[in-house]
Amino acid sequence: EPEERPSFRAVLRELTEMMMKKSLSPPVPSTYQKRYLKKIMDLGEGHFGKVTLYKYDPTNDDTGELVAVKVLKQESGCVAEGLMKEIEILKSLDHINIVKYKGCCTEPGRTEVQLIMEYLPMGSLRDYLPKTKVSVCQCLMYAQQICQGMDYLHSKRYVHRDLAARNVLVENNSLVKIGDFGLTKHIPEGEIYYRVREDGDSPVFWYAIECLKESKFSFASDVWSFGVTLYEILTRCDNRQSPPTKFYEMMGEAQGQITTMIIIDLLMKNMRLPCPRDCPHEVRLLMEQCWHKDQAQRPSFENLIVRFEAIRR
Ligand code: ADP
Ligand code: MG
Fold first, then answer.
1. Which of 65, 124, 183 best tests ligand 1's pocket when mutated (most atoms within 8 Å of CB)?
2. Residue 24, exposed/middle/buried by CB under 10 A (0-12, 13-18, 19+)?
3. Is 50 marked as binding a ligand?
4. Is 162 a catalytic residue?
5. Protein residues whose CB sits closer than 6 Å to any atom of ligand 1
6. Burial class (CB in 10 A: 0-12, 13-18, 19+), 142
7. From the DSSP assignment, how many helices (H) and strands (E) are in the chain?
8. Which residues bind ATP (predicted)?
């Protein structure tokens, strides 16, 4: 019987072979070299960043992979720090409904930083929905996938703070992923809020009432923004029904500098976005719960997943 056991020498040989094989396969580059990035086209831009499609082709024979590369619109030391934060957060996340981090690209001696991520060919939900026929059932599937990504993000104690259709990317007609973690913040264990001091570019029409009033961001304020995103999905991101358009309609003439004050006023009077045309009744109720004045009354993403599963059955 002892003869049946492999000798130490045999084990050692096998292990060495395994290690050789591993080192022979090309390493996954996490630092990309800028000179091998060939520009294909612009993909889009938001408040802070600009995203471009490149082919990373170090062998220069067109066999390279397609990647989406994000840079900041204005280069400045302090903003670049923001992108480094985004890179660190994205690096630490691994979920099917969150865009995959691939690496970053920095040049020695320069402040410019590039975030390299997987390329999602259909762009954001804002690009995709207006030009595609999508059933209510599919809308609810996208909504549930967003909840799954958000539930994971919250389990890591991050608040997203910028959940909106423009920041959800489409892989294909049955898979969406959350992208853009530019405003994402970590909430330390035991605390429930993140408070902002600077509030320059705020997506006010997606913000929960407590964010507008007190700049307090929490897991529950992400749920509010999800409600607005759900509204956008069910209106198929039609510009004539967009959250800003609808809020401006509710506001009437008064707008400008005091927009935030007027929105707070509308929300305090319990005015909300209208019910999208083909939105099922139980989904409308769910949306309204996400927009509850009292944070404690809003559902969690965990709860939303269960509810979507039941509705879609
Ligand atoms: P910002 O922080 O400025 O809002 P985003 O990260 O939201 O920048 O990117 C801006 C736009 O670029 C998105 O709305 C989307 O249309 C497009 N985009 C971003 N990432 C990708 C990607 N990985 N694949 C395809 N398109 C993308
Ligand atoms: Mg964005």
1. 124
2. exposed
3. yes
4. yes
5. 43-49, 51, 68, 70, 99, 117-120, 123-124, 127, 166-167, 169, 179-180, 182
6. buried
7. 10, 11
8. 43-51, 70
Q: Along the 313 residues of the chain, how does pLDDT read in single tens digits?
A: 556 777 888 888 888 777 766 655 544 556 788 889 999 999 999 878 899 999 999 998 988 999 999 988 775 555 567 788 888 899 999 999 999 999 888 766 666 788 899 999 999 999 999 999 999 999 999 999 999 999 999 999 999 999 999 999 999 999 999 999 888 888 887 777 777 655 445 689 999 999 999 988 999 999 999 999 999 999 999 999 999 999 989 988 666 667 888 999 999 999 999 999 999 999 999 999 999 999 999 999 999 999 999 999 8
The torsion angles phi and psi of 123, rounded to 5 degrees, stand at 70, -160
Q: What are phi and psi of 130, to 5 degrees?
A: -65, -25
Backbone angles phi, psi at 19, to 5 degrees: -65, -40
Prediction pTM value = 0.87
**Cα(282) to centroid(ligand 1), Å:** 32
The rounded Å distance from CA 66 to ligand 1 centre is: 15
**Catalytic residue (choose from 151, 162, 180, 222):** 162
Is 154 annotated in a binding site? The answer is no
Q: How far is the CA of 99 from the centre of ligand 2 (A)?
A: 13
Distance CA 13, CA 11 (A): 5
Gap between the Cα atoms of 32 and 115, Å rounded = 10
SS3 of residue 116 by DSSP: strand
| C-alpha torsion 243→244→245→246, nearest 10 | 50
